């Protein structure tokens, strides 16, 4: 079967749906997704582990797409014919486009653990969360490899619901090294330990058997279920195969244009000025920017400063902008702590512990480059 659209979007994540919501006002638009569900909020898939249905996380009901004439095509896009302006799908159909947006997101990284084949997971898709939930229903212990934002939230969530040993293994000296300084990370680690999550830093996984994960230093950690949370690889394969320029991700310019005319990329898959983003806020911004450019109303895309919000063991942690450089603790009353980072007197980043109220003010300060 062959069909034609003005713009075809590969990927039904935040970038793809955001772009479609703008494009559909003037164009016949299709989203190709290789997931069985309608587009959902990926950041919330942990809720599926504790029993929510993926449908409860949908960004919009089917009627929202129907009312806007956005066609959702459930199949995997296998290849792009740039000259013929067409995408071939795994179900054998061919979709023609005038403009193509690659919003293919990213894939979770994993490495093989010798001695163990099963009950090893990553958490990226709704179906991953369903599989983890099922495995945890009979688990004796749970270990997350990787002490980043996602891994910590996952470990803390499981510790809230299940009375089994929960561990986090982190190779760095402290958790969240990209978002926190050492004192803030230590405070967070204490709170996690109080909740029953063992956080083991400066440690690497070596191999595993059915019950334990063995570390390179010889320690063994009870781990009847293991989840990797060691970062992502941008989904650039389909672009690479089509001869579109890639590096770590799909290379785009400030208008989200790839090296091939009328093909754009946005979200986790896109690389701008050597930078990958990996955050929902940038995926949404890039989806909008690409859509406006396709409609002839484009402005150069300037990414917002990154921010991360985390609630663990009752502590609110906010990380804004760039963490590093000169630091100044401007508030520290035991429970509440605010650290700002400066570069040549200009505020470039901040860590707020239990002080969400100051977030908007400090974000504005970072944005103003004062
Ligand atoms: C558990 C979890 C928690 C997170 N929490 C946060 C958070 O708190 N804050 C934050 O900012 N970010 C968070 N993120 C990251 C955020 O979800 C991503 O940055 C965002 O989803 C990226 O959006 P995207 O549209 O670029 O790609 P994605 O959401 O990854 O969507 C891409 C879609 O394209 C599909 N696809 C890929 N290739 C093809 C193909 N060839 N054919 C058809 N379909 C294809 C994929 O299956 C997927 O459905 C979290 C991520 C996870 C997994």
What does this entry show, briefly?
The chain is α/β, with parallel strands linked by helices. It has helices at 14-23, 46-49, 62-67, 126-136, 149-161, 182-194, 237-241, 280-294, 359-368; strands spanning 2-4, 7-10, 29-33, 70-74, 77-81, 86-89, 94-96, 99-102, 106-108, 120-122, 142-145, 166-169, 197-200, 205-208, 212-215, 220-222, 225-228, 232-234, 250-252, 263-265, 270-272, 307-312, 315-321, 326-332, 337-343, 346-353. α1 (14-23) links the parallel β2 (7-10) and β3.
Structural features, described:
By secondary structure, this protein is an alpha/beta fold. The chain has 3 domains: 2-107 and 233-294, FAD/NAD(P)-binding domain (3-Layer(bba) Sandwich), CATH 3.50.50.60; 110-228, FAD/NAD(P)-binding domain, CATH 3.50.50; 307-368, FAD/NAD-linked reductase, C-terminal dimerisation domain (Enolase-like, domain 1, 2-Layer Sandwich). 24% of the residues lie in helices and 31% in strands. It has 9 helices and 26 strands. The protein has helices spanning 14-23, 46-49, 62-67, 126-136, 149-161, 182-194, 237-241, 280-294, 359-368; strands at residues 2-4, 7-10, 29-33, 70-74, 77-81, 86-89, 94-96, 99-102, 106-108, 120-122, 142-145, 166-169, 197-200, 205-208, 212-215, 220-222, 225-228, 232-234, 250-252, 263-265, 270-272, 307-312, 315-321, 326-332, 337-343, 346-353. The strands form 7 sheets. It has a 5-stranded parallel sheet. A 5-stranded parallel sheet has the order 10-17-11-12-13. A 5-stranded antiparallel sheet has the order 22-23-26-25-24, sandwiched between helices. Strand 25 and strand 26 form a beta hairpin. Helix 1 (14-23) runs parallel beside helix 8 (280-294). The longest helix is centred in the last third of the chain and has 15 residues, at 280-294. It is globular and about 60 Å long. The mean pLDDT is 94. The site of flavin-adenine dinucleotide has 34 residues, from helix 1, strand 3 and helix 8.
